[in-house]
Design goal:
15 helices; two-stranded antiparallel sheet; globular; 1% strand
Amino acid sequence: MSIKFRLTIMNFLQFFVWGIWLISLGGYMGQTFGPIEGGSIGLSIGRTYGSMGWASLFMPALLGIIADKYFSAQKVLGIAHILAGFAIFFATKATNSTEMYWIIFATSCFYMPTIALNNSVSYALLNKNNFDVQKAFTPIRVWGTVGFVIAMWFVDLTDWKSNTFQFVFASVSMILTGVFSFTLPDVPAENKNNNQSLSSKFGLDSFVLFKQKKLAIFFVFAMLLGAALQITNMFGDTFIRDFGSNPEYKGTFGVEHSVFIISLSQISETLFIITIPFFLKKFGIKNVMIFSMIAWVLRFGLFGIGDPGSGVIFLILSMIVYGMAFDFFNISGSLYVEKETDSKMRSSAQGLFMLMTNGVGAILGGEFAGRTVSYFTVENKVQWSSVWFSFAGYALVIAIVFAIVFKYKHNPDDVANVSH
């Protein structure tokens, strides 16, 4: 097999194993576990998803150091996948939300670092084989999203989303992905950065960027919007399934195949990636990020008025705007960091961007979303419209303040050659 084909399989598997359980976990918890003492199941779900943020604060840096200095990167990637596979198997034994929290936290400690490790291995092997990394990796990475969508469809059509088979399937798939990682060509440790301090190795020195006002403002907004990135992953499936308790919607396609409906979001994501170079050149990074924030307002607002019956069109429209909401923020934000930081700090700055969005932002988002759902839960019945409109209001406030506070002058030449 050619190296590009092998990396395509690796990227497909990388996100296939995540798609098996990420979207359906919230619905499974809502269906299986009752409210925790002193709170609602919504709070439990929010905190469980927030555990991925806690894992993202330190584990990617730790395993990155190990891959840089001690062991071949593809072996670290393989071991991490195998350990994540063993960890998630214990989800089949979870009897309450607290146990599930710690199981997902343990799984995330090993899985979350594999996303960066997979990229590192792919870049290294493409460079080694004299490919233009930017051009070659993009079509390879798209297969990761395809894998995520196919996994969602599979657990939806088999209805494994409603039982522990999803975790058994995820466990086996993760272990097999780990084994496949060992078959990739060697990416040896280079023992680089020997003279760096521990804080540098963990990217903590990048916090010096907060001394620059523009970047400090940007990173604060990255954290605030990062809090919204996983909310529909947390509660989208639970929300749509909840309509099944109403005789009017019971048995409808949307209720029975909630994960399939949500998968339209990931399909939209792959399509909007293609449009990013045009939007960046035409409107500039600031406006593209504002478009993202407005798209989040629509994402949540359309959920608020949608239903699996006559209002299914609003759910579908929400899935379509998700691609703009997610991609425009992540890619334009990453590009802004690339442009505004010194070349010596770029890797650390990108790491800080990810930490603020997928780490601190995800933690705050899990807690904030969980408490919001809990607040609007009356007699164990969630007032979903109020929940989604609250999130829409949050995104709207961020968009307005960002438009006023964040200063950026667009130069079309700066992004003329951007390609993702």
